Amino acid sequence: MTDAFEEACLRVDEAMSDWRQGDCLSADEWFVHRYDPDAPLTPESRDVASTGGYLCESAVRGLMVATQTCDIVRPSSTRPFVEVVPLVEVDADHLEEIRRGR
User: Fold this and answer.
1) 39-68 per-residue burial string, b: 16 or more CB within 10 A, e: under 16
2) What φ, ψ does residue 14 adopt, rounded to 5°?
3) Secondary structure letter of residue 26 according to DSSP
4) What's the whole-model pTM score?
5) pLDDT in tens, 80-102
6) CA 68 – CA 73 distance, rounded (Å)
7) In what order do the strands lie in the sheet with 24-34?
8) Which residues contact 85 (CB under 8 A, 6 or more apart)?
9) What number is the average pLDDT over the span 75-82?
10) What gap in Å lies between CA 56 and CA 51, rounded to an integer?
11) DSSP E strands, 1-102
């Protein structure tokens, strides 16, 4: 590994040293994701599907860290990815389904 790579990994490790699974960032953000072009689920993905694209960008209320804490604390040189999921608003009916684990 090069010195520049090692230094970059150390900066990432330092920045993520207090990240834990379930941590949330609540802010207006953009979330880029792949979707199934044969079954786009959101208005944004349907728009992109009509153009033949495979990546969709959606405005979200924030992000939540989904990666397990045990993987986050490993060196980024060996675990270079952290998975995040978008925070989205849901209506009351969907919220009740979520509370019931559906």
Assistant:
1) ebeeebbeebbeeeeeebebebebbebebe
2) -65, -45
3) E
4) 0.74
5) 999 999 998 889 999 999 899 88
6) 9
7) 24-34, 55-65, 84-87
8) 63, 64, 66
9) 92
10) 11
11) 24-34, 55-65, 84-87
